[in-house]
UniProtKB/TrEMBL annotation:
Organism: Macrostomum lignano
Superkingdom: Eukaryota
Residue ranges annotated for the Isochorismatase-like domain, each copy included: 17-163
Listed name of the protein: Isochorismatase domain-containing protein
InterPro entries attached to this UniProt entry: Isochorismatase-like_dom, Isochorismatase-like_sf, Isochorismatase_domain
Residue intervals passing through the bilayer: none
Assigned protein family: Belongs to the isochorismatase family.
Length: 207
């Protein structure tokens, strides 16, 4: 009798998942569409993953010229913060520090069509499951973001929302950290058009 084929459906397990936070730096504050909203959402992801004791990696693209991670992202004490010049987060300093049991990555940050997309493709090539948090990624140009999400989905990434990902990690209301994380989920979020159908705001507004 032939063995059953196990279908990969992108389920998350907090023991096998890491959070990647890509290049949310001061220099980008005024140029990235909905920058405050994506930082706010990424901060929620950071706090939830820290509560669940998941590995977190933060990168900074050429910090000498682009400054450092914005303080609104949250408490990065104990978090690996790595500077880089290549666009992908998959630099040796990140990949060598990634625990061997990790097989899935949650990906947030900027820019969707550059560093986020290249990180996602590198991770897919390394056989990681990649979950792009769509309400936590953006670009300067909304069209770049839209096509980058299409590109990443076509390549094999899972597109999901911050709340969906966090609930998937918890899996059960009996999870020991459920009530603590639930408080983060219930916090009012900054309004943006990042979750509109098709990635557009009503009446033709920006992403």
């Amino acid at each position: 009798m032939a063995s059953a084929v196990v279908r990969c459906v992108g389920k998350l397990n907090s023991n096998r998942t890491a959070l990647f936070l890509c290049d949310m730096q001061e220099k980008f504050r005024k140029t990235i569409t909905h920058f405050p909203a994506i930082v706010d959402t990424s901060s929620r992801m950071l706090r939830a993953c820290q509560i669940m004791k998941m590995p977190v990696f933060v990168t900074e693209q050429y910090p000498k010229g682009l400054s450092h991670t914005v303080p609104e992202l949250g408490d990065l004490s104990g978090v690996t913060v790595i500077d880089k010049t290549q666009f992908s987060m998959c630099v040796n300093a990140v990949m060598s520090a990634l625990p061997s049991e990790i097989d899935s990555v949650l990906l947030c940050g900027i820019e969707a069509h550059a560093c986020v997309q290249q990180t996602s493709l590198d991770l897919l090539e390394k056989n990681f499951q990649v979950h792009v948090i769509v309400d936590a990624v953006s670009s300067r140009n909304p069209v770049d973001r839209m096509y980058a999400l299409d590109r990443m989905k076509s390549a094999g990434c899972w597109l999901t929302t911050s709340e969906s990902a966090v609930l998937a990690l918890l899996r059960d209301a009996s999870h020991p950290h459920f009530k603590e994380v639930q408080k983060i989920i219930w916090e009012p979020s900054l309004d943006s058009g990042l979750l509109q159908p098709g990635g557009r705001e009503p009446s033709g507004g920006k992403l």
